[in-house]
């Protein structure tokens, strides 16, 4: 019965074994499908699908078999998606813009900014000198100058060398429920069970064995409960160009921070790159010095960093390159990332930015220091495998 449906499932790369198929037939014989198509759908999906990531493939097979919907419409949808995932290239910098960018280092930019603050008395828009909006001046927001100082406004152009303003961002939520299950399943392999604590858990198998050896007289055997011994540190980029990914990162944070998942879980915030301090809240009021964090962290703890890794090169490569105008970092951001890489035996970076944008940017530089995966279900699973078992790290050109 429904043998063609089995072949339809396998054609969609759903690995349905003969044992699972016979289990489905037994369920039908017992009437578990309630003699309805909806009931059969629920029964078949619960028996034949072992991973929620395959729900879409199951739905396609179900529609193709029961609704006579063929693959032409689906192929058209995939073609449209490929178009949408390959947008037109951004405007390239002119020769004059490149020369101007190379001529202004961070110290000179800060000197000119403070000079403008002392001299400026009026609002300016669409200009090329004063602190304003929509112009080509190095100072302000909404303009087109490559590598300036953003003052107020929203980020998004990815070209500001620093931001002058209050360091206050919106914290990621950890109570998000929608679609958290997929991430939760991807994280489940980040688990190393061990017995710890007082022997208060009854071991049924050993109790039966010892009772049999004791001529039937009951011999209870207790063991400490099995718990996950993995310790995890999660560091999350927040604000600016990460705003479009806030909901996605909130889902990851929700799944990772669930009580009891890890032996120890700590989370911190940063903006763009990790420097001398990370922060326990997105208000960025009281920072935790990274050297102190390293001193109180075992080398076997797992560190997961989440961020788009996209910033002005000076912010990553130059000393003092903090995105915040009010703080001067003595070491470059890339040096702090190397210190983290040297301390932790297992470290992974999850990037929500589409992988086609990684090459030729600060993302490529950071991926050369810290193993990086895309913030997708497959990417999380790949990072988890590396965190648990080690092995090779992905190349930038791998899918």
Short note summarizing the structure:
The protein is α/β, with parallel strands linked by helices and 399 residues long.
Explain what you see.
There is one protein chain. 38% of the residues lie in helices and 14% in strands. By secondary structure, it is α/β, with parallel strands linked by helices. The chain has four domains: 3-84, no CATH class; 95-164, no CATH class; 180-192 and 229-389, Rossmann fold, CATH 3.40.50; 195-228, no CATH class. α10 links the parallel β10 and β11 (264-270). The longest helix has 14 residues, at 71-84.
What secondary-structure arrangement, pairings included, does this model have?
Elements: H1 3-11, H2 18-29, H3 37-48, H4 55-66, H5 71-84, H6 95-103, H7 106-119, E1 124-125, E2 132-133, E3 139-141, E4 149-151, E5 162-164, H8 180-187, E6 193-195, E7 201-202, H9 204-213, E8 222-223, E9 226-228, E10 231-237, H10 246-256, E11 264-270, E12 277-279, E13 287-289, H11 290-295, E14 302-306, H12 313-317, H13 333-343, E15 346-351, H14 362-367, E16 372-374, H15 377-389
Parallel strand pairs: 1-2, 2-3, 3-4, 4-5, 10-11, 10-14, 14-15, 15-16
Antiparallel strand pairs: 6-9, 7-8, 12-13
Helix pairs in contact: 1-4, 2-3, 8-10, 8-15
């Amino acid at each position: 019965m429904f043998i063609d449906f089995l072949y339809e499932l396998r054609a969609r790369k759903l690995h349905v074994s003969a044992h699972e198929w016979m289990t489905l037939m037994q369920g039908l014989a017992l009437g578990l499908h309630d003699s309805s198509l909806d009931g059969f759908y629920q029964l078949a999906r619960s028996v034949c699908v072992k991973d929620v990531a395959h729900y879409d493939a199951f739905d396609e097979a179900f529609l193709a078999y029961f609704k006579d919907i063929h693959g032409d419409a689906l192929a058209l949808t995939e073609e449209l998606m490929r178009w949408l995932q390959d947008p037109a290239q951004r405007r390239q910098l002119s020769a004059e813009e490149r020369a101007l960018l190379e001529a202004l280092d961070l110290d000179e930019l800060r000197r000119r900014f403070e000079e403008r603050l002392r001299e400026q008395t009026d609002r300016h828009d669409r200009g090329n000198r004063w602190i304003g909006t929509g112009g080509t001046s190095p100072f302000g927001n909404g303009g087109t100058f490559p590598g300036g100082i953003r003052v107020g406004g929203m980020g998004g152009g990815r070209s500001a060398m620093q931001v002058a303003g209050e360091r206050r961002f919106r914290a990621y939520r950890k109570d998000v429920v929608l679609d958290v299950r997929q991430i939760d399943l991807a994280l489940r392999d980040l688990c190393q069970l061990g017995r710890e604590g007082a022997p208060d858990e009854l071991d049924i198998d050993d109790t039966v064995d010892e009772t049999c050896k004791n001529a039937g007289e009951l011999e209870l055997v207790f063991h400490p409960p099995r718990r996950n011994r993995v310790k995890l540190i999660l560091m999350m980029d927040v604000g600016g160009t990460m705003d479009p990914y806030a909901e996605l990162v909130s889902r990851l944070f929700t799944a990772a921070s669930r009580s009891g998942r890890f032996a120890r879980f700590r989370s911190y915030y940063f903006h763009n790159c990790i420097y001398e301090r990370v922060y326990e809240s997105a208000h960025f009021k009281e920072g935790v010095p990274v050297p102190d964090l390293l001193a109180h962290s075992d080398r076997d703890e797992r560190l997961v960093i989440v961020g788009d890794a996209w910033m002005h090169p000076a912010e990553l490569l130059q000393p003092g390159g903090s995105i915040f105008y009010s703080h001067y970092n003595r070491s470059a951001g890339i040096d702090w990332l190397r210190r983290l890489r040297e301390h932790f035996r297992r470290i992974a970076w999850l990037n929500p930015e589409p992988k086609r944008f990684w090459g030729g940017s600060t993302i490529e530089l950071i991926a050369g220091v810290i193993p990086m995966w895309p913030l997708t279900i497959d990417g999380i699973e790949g990072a988890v495998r590396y965190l648990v078992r080690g092995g090779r790290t992905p190349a930038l050109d791998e899918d």
